[in-house]
């Protein structure tokens, strides 16, 4: 009993220290974002940001890049991971290794390789749409893990045999049977991809595209209080995505417990 109480107090102390470590910088950043000079505090930094067209353009660029990245990633990964679990489980170690390669290749080396290898029409390589290629690679470890866990929780062989016995083709099987059973995994993969794309800086900056992260860096060099306000906005977007991942994961856990 005393040991459990001591562990409880030590755990509470660790949580308190962790909370202070993470919360104090956020509070300081929030207070600084309201600073207008001297003893004056107000919303001028936020008002200036709202009226800057570049903010909304960069935010929209990052959002539509995130949606394109999610679409491309899921179109390629869902059939691939499904096929691996159903027909080629021996290749799973190879898939696992390939999925973590983005962690070991430096982003600057990846940018150099992509610009040297990829050529194409100007509407693709000359616009921000080109960033979808490296973003798909960056998101691969997270999207692959989410889909892998989701498909491992399903009896794919039984679902496939039941669907094909009713006359469903492979396309119908994936779209009308597999995808509805992977809602939590797909939501988690999508939200993680949004968080990655919204915070990615290296690729966009080197390739000279004005995304949300690049705009934050620009504001940081020109206006300190507006940079603090924009940092808080970016933090809120990222944490909303993480909260969505936690909620979808909790729903999946409750469903598994009900079984």
From TrEMBL:
Topology relative to the membrane: Multi-pass membrane protein
Superkingdom of origin: Bacteria
Q: Where in the cell is it found?
A: Cell inner membrane; Cell membrane
**Which residue intervals define the domain ABC transmembrane type-1 in the entry?**
59-248
Q: Which residues form a coiled coil?
A: none
Alphabetized CDD domains for the sequence: TM_PBP2
> Alphabetically, which GO biological process terms does the record hold?
transmembrane transport
Q: Which GO terms describe its cellular component?
A: plasma membrane
Q: Which UniProt keywords apply?
A: Cell inner membrane, Cell membrane, Membrane, Transmembrane, Transmembrane helix, Transport
Residue spans crossing the bilayer: 12-35, 63-82, 94-117, 123-144, 185-208, 228-249
Q: Which family does it belong to?
A: Belongs to the binding-protein-dependent transport system permease family.
**What name does UniProt use for this protein?**
Spermidine/putrescine ABC transporter permease
């Amino acid at each position: 009993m005393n040991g459990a109480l001591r562990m409880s107090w030590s755990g509470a102390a660790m949580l308190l220290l962790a909370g202070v470590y993470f919360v104090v910088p956020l509070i300081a950043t929030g207070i600084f974002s309201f600073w207008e000079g001297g003893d004056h505090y107000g919303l001028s930094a936020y008002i200036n940001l709202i009226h800057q067209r570049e903010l909304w353009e960069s935010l929209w660029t990052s959002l539509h890049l995130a949606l394109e990245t999610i679409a491309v990633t899921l179109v390629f990964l869902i059939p691939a991971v499904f096929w691996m679990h159903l027909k080629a489980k021996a290749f799973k170690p190879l898939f696992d290794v390939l999925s973590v390669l983005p962690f070991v290749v430096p982003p600057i080396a990846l940018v150099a390789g992509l610009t040297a290898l990829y050529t194409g029409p100007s509407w693709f390589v000359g616009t921000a749409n080109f960033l979808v290629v490296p973003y798909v690679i960056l998101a691969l470890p997270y999207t692959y893990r989410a889909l892998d866990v989701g498909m491992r929780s399903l009896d794919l062989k039984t679902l496939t045999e039941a669907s094909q016995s009713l006359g469903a083709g492979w396309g119908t099987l994936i779209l009308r049977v597999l995808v509805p059973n992977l809602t939590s995994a797909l939501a988690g993969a999508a939200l993680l991809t949004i968080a990655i794309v919204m915070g990615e800086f290296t690729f966009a900056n080197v390739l000279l595209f004005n995304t949300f992260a690049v705009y934050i860096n620009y504001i940081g060099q020109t206006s300190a209080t507006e940079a603090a306000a924009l940092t808080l906005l970016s933090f809120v977007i990222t944490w909303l995505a993480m909260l969505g991942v936690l909620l979808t994961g909790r729903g999946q856990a409750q469903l598994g417990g009900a079984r």
